Amino acid sequence: MTTLDTAPPAAPAAADVRARTARAWRTLRSSRTALVGLAVVGVHVLLALLAPLLTSYDPIANDPSHVLLGPSWEHWAGTDQYGRDVLTRVLYGGRYALGVSVVATVLAVALGTVIGCAAALRGGWFDDVLGRVLDAVLAVPSILALLVVVTALGTGSAVIVCAVAVVFVPQVVRVVRGAALAVVPADYVTAARARGEGTWSILRREVLPNIADVVGVEFAMRASWVVLLISSLSFLGFGADPPTPDWGLMVAENRTAITVVPMASLAPIIALATLVVGLNLAADGLSKAWGVDRIREGS
Amino acid sequence: MLAFVARRVAAAIGTLFLSSVLVFLALQALPGDVATQILGKDATPDAVATLRKQLGLDQPAWERYFDWIKGALHGDFGTSLVSGKPVGGEVAQYLANSALIAVVTILFAVTGSLVLGILAGLYRDRWADHLISTVSLVGMSVPEFVVATVLVLCFSVALPWFPAVVLYGPDASVGQLLPAVWLPALALAIVMAAYIVRMARTSVIDVMAGEYVTTARLKGLSTWRVVTRHALPSALLPTLHVIALNVAWLVGGVAVVENVFNYPGIGKLMLTSVQNRDLPVVQAVALISAVVYVVCNLAADLGAMALNPKLRTRGRT
């Protein structure tokens, strides 16, 4: 649609990419919400990456002589019941949360986008059958589906990534299919079909560039859901295994001692909440800046 | 219109059938034989074979599926591998306890969020709107276990008004459970309301910009009347759909919140049966959740039709 005016698919690849980046950057700058959200997420990524430089404590080593301390100059957020520095665990916890969530979201959105576009392009019985199956998958609560997969296959990061991807693919498919359906009747798609181009090449060169904004917003929004779901899973004891520094797990571990060292529970809560607020702000801002109607998407 | 209703109902039944197949396939495809799981790794092959026969695991999968679904239609979900009691009765007991939470949650969430959403929509871009929008964004961004933990800290520890954990089993009476319902319901309602508020706000803004609202205002109707006669019904329509979608989420959220409070509901049952690999119970819970989801969506669709004349007459033209 609008992308077509500034970046026709026939343009040389380099100029095409440059024009599109410039346009994306322009709209981004115009939306303060999106910028704030992306900045918050960026800070989280930086903190997680630089965790070993920012703190000298070990996130998993026990220290029985410094158990359940309140905030002090040595331990800014105090220590937990095993004497581990809470701030260190929160910083390292970002690595797990971000790593697993980003991989799972990329997988879910990529798969969902391909399937959704294919359904919109092909139509017919493929679309019908897919729609029915997705409805049936959506009818089972995602947390139950996740629990079943995790109990069956164990709690490794790879399993959680795949399980989360499977749970969220149907929702992405719905949104992307809706967006792609608006593009498919366009003349340039018909022209590409008439030229005899294959489904994959039409998808990549004609459809995808025109729904990139929808996919971008979808990514930011799904990422916030994935972070929440993975932390809930850890909280229930089905996610990260105990010594791992993970925010959901930390809340579960320190909840019983909440009256003694409230910071041990509050610090991971604050980290989790700010990350998700950042992602939500980014999704909101981007959808407003790019004119993607998230309400219509039924999610 | 009748044809429309019939088509929707048929589609819902089809979805349910597919869900039941998926649930069954997913659970039966789990690696790890149930018989070996129950008897432990050291069991003799003979004992495993006997138990497999007892559980009917030696029959082909499709035969077991039809046995299961036939029983399920009659309310018989088999026997629990852990307690040895009929699954149907057990699930019903837990489900009734959860229903108590669900009713309170939906009442809290819907009334609270509609009021806040309409306020935010009416006072668009003023401080009330900013405040409500910010709070709902934060509400969306914290998982249920965090809300529940904070509520416990405030209303069980700091102000000992409500119990932090439930000490009763699944057969507790409503009177025993009632004091323990409020905090879990509030935790769920806060998270749920965050989504509905945003929805209601957007639809109120849309409606208030409409020409018929301007007409109503020009007629000299009071703001209150304009809101109750025009804004509220129109805001209700899309909101209904969000509420239905949220019910599916509610089943998952209930699992988390009930475990925080040790509340004997369906979510607690879900988690313990997954932990114990009590397949008949997991299957029953999954199927019942799917039924709840599909029925709510159907109700929302039919409700939307009843409220929206455009949808109602589409079948006739």
Task: Give short descriptive properties of this protein.
heterodimer; A: 299 residues; mainly alpha; 73% helix; B: mainly alpha; MetI-like fold
What are the low-pLDDT stretches of chain A, counting only 5+ consecutive residues below 50? 1-12, 294-299
Helix-strand category of chain B: mainly alpha
- Greatest interface by residues involved: A-B, 45 and 52 residues
Unreliable runs of chain B, pLDDT <50, ≥5 residues? none
Can you walk through the features of this model?
- The complex is a heterodimer of chains A (299) and B (317).
- Chain A is mostly helical and 299 residues long.
- Chain A is built from twelve helices and no strands.
- Chain A has one domain: Orthogonal Bundle (MetI-like fold), CATH 1.10.3720.10.
- In chain A, 73% of the residues lie in helices and 0% in strands.
- In chain A, α10 runs parallel beside α11 (247-254).
- The model of chain A is unreliable at 1-12 and 294-299 (pLDDT under 50).
- Chain B contains 13 helices and no strands.
- Chain B has two domains: 12-73, no CATH class; 88-312, MetI-like fold (Orthogonal Bundle), CATH 1.10.3720.10.
- Chain B is 79% helix and 0% strand.
How are the elements arranged and paired?
The complex is a heterodimer of chains A (299) and B (317).
Chain A: H1 2-6, H2 13-30, H3 32-49, H4 51-54, H5 86-122, H6 124-138, H7 142-153, H8 157-183, H9 187-194, H10 199-235, H11 247-254, H12 262-290
Helix pairs in contact in A: 3-5, 3-12, 5-6, 5-8, 5-10, 5-12, 6-8, 7-8, 8-10, 9-10, 10-11, 10-12, 11-12
Chain B: H1 2-28, H2 34-39, H3 45-55, H4 61-73, H5 87-122, H6 127-141, H7 144-158, H8 174-208, H9 211-218, H10 223-261, H11 266-275, H12 279-307, H13 309-313
